[in-house]
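During the reporting period the student researcher (J.K.) took over the structure-prediction task from the postdoctoral fellow and processed the backlog of single-chain submissions. One of the processed entries is reproduced below for the supervisory committee.
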Amino acid sequence: MKSWLWIFAAGIAGGVALGLIMAPVFHRGAASRGAGWGLKTGVWTGPDWRSRLAGRGPKAGSRRGGQRHARPHTDLREYFESLSGTEELYDLNVVEAVRRAFQVTMFSEEEARAGLNILAELEQNEEDDELYAYAAGLLLARWAELNGPEAFRYAIEHSERWKYYSNDIAAVAMTSWTETDPAGATEWFREMLREAEGDNSREFLRADSVQEALFTTLARMDREAAHELATDLGGAMRFGSMEVVARNAASEAELQELLSGTEGTHPSVHRAVLEEWARRDPAAAAAWLEANPAARPDRTVFEVARMYLEKDPEAGVEWFMRQEIHAAHVPLRLQAVTAGLARQDVAAAAEWLSQQADDPYRDDAERILSVHLARSGHWAEAFQWAAAIDDEKVRTRAAWTVLSHGQTAEHEPARATIFEAGRAAGFEEEAAVWLERMESR
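J.K. obtained the following structure tokens:
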């Protein structure tokens, strides 16, 4: 099923129809009347929902009522099987699918588990994977609302069933659980990371989509709890989680509050918040960073500068160049500024670089500039900047990179232009080999 179909159907159902599936009308009082799901077979044992609605609403075949199925789906397994091979919107009765999906919101734990097991037993074609993944996501999300730990124990044990959709399915369920029981989901996540045995569990919990689902939902409901959990995590998870928390901050004032609450924590926590602030207002983030040198490792300076250069190149360059950085990172700064300017105005980048000290620090910046000039078709200037590189190996590599951007020159005049530009800049051998390869294609 195409991705645009998911979005369309999900929009219709307001998120309830994520799976575009499911079952005849089910309600909690059904068992008292002898109705319910046969958990082993998936068969509805009560009266058909259509018969209960008989006499209400538009008549079958009317304009509002639409066409009835020749035979209503009263079997969950049968309904899943009927969806096999569905790829396009017009292959699916969306209203029927939304109606069935809505009923999953009233499933018990046992029914949600039974639905997942039935789904797992069905033989799936490759084109069914997406649709069945949505069905599994909806069922697991309902189960997680009722009993998060059990639902996720099942998800971890059976993640291989859902192939490359397993993390996304778990993320849908994590959102539902966190909205229903934020404290329970948070504590479970923390404990599982601490105690999980086996790579399967750890990798499952470390998946970006699962983390993002937890922290996005938690940040929306309880920012302090999300902040506390993010700062407690280690390694890449710490930065990624704090990045999600920062992204969900409603204002710059909230971002500043997050920064003030991260004193004494790992530098990556500051960096995550500052990067988000820089996306919104790079000048303000840069000013804060400059006024707080303790929170200013070079990596953070580079990230803020990158976004500053995108929004305001002139001010960004001026700010970046006056920051104190480690001597080993000076060449990297030249490269970053050159690349940042060249992405917006290659002529301005060339003018700026020509004003910098002519020393070996410039080699890689000159290589970067030559590539950007080649991409924009300025062949003579590209080769001239490549020829200005002091290090022979870097210079030769730059020449071949420039020539590689001429691979699309199918016509003789264009090839001749590139060849002559390279030869004039002193790359006679490289240009000759390139031209011979192009003519032999």
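The committee noted the following: Strands lie at 37-38, 43-44.
J.K. will present the remaining backlog at the next meeting.
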